[in-house]
Design goal:
With 249 residues, the protein is an alpha/beta fold. The chain contains 12 helices and 8 strands. The structure holds phosphoenolpyruvate.
Amino acid sequence: MAANWKMNLSLYEAGDLLTEIKKAEIDFNRVDVLVAPPFTTLPSAHNLLSGTAIQIAGQNMHWEEAGAFTGEVSPLMLKEAGCTHVILGHSERRALFFETSTIINNKVAAAVNTGLIPILCIGESLQQREEKKTFDIVREQLQESLHSFSQGAVLPEGLILAYEPVWAIGTGKTASPQQAQEVHSFIRDWLREAFDKNTGRLTTILYGGSVRPDNIKELMAQPDIDGALIGGASLKADSFLSIVRFYEG
Ligand code: PEP
């Protein structure tokens, strides 16, 4: 269960939320938990979470190691700040900051070279869904964002995919479990074809888009949904923790 805080929470609010999460009883044999705070909160989150099984991700990064890239953060900087993972290609990055799948491919490659696990986001817009282009868009995003790896037909170990239909992000409109399952299953088929059977079977695929305590169980009951990327509902301890503990009850 991955929490994407986006550009939210002050340092103090973040500290309070992480303290609550840290205190909670979580069965780490049943669930992996990760938080993606804003850059400036990463070192203090790392401090607070040391000694716990909760992992930390950056929300974005540049693909170069260093240089004249004002306002950017390198893969190594994220590692130094305590990140094990990095979210790449989030639809907000694609739409608001004009990131193309080619740029995202560079970032995925740089993350892997630095030993960060990418959480690669893909997903169609409402218009694309209504025009029945969902599978074409998802295929194209996968092909282009993983171009460096499909050449050699080896997907980096542990790479995580997140299917996030853009029309479901922050809108309160969740994809139905069936709609999400259908695309997750399509993604597994694509992975099988582009890489191999095991890659298709074993790759972790998260669903993201208005995940809440009241819809997580049904989503997690789908055979091809392995977890969730959670935005809004990850900003409060009670809602995030009841999603994390979906396995109870
Ligand atoms: C997200 O930002 O990745 C996301 C899924 O947001 P929300 O849960 O708020 O829809």
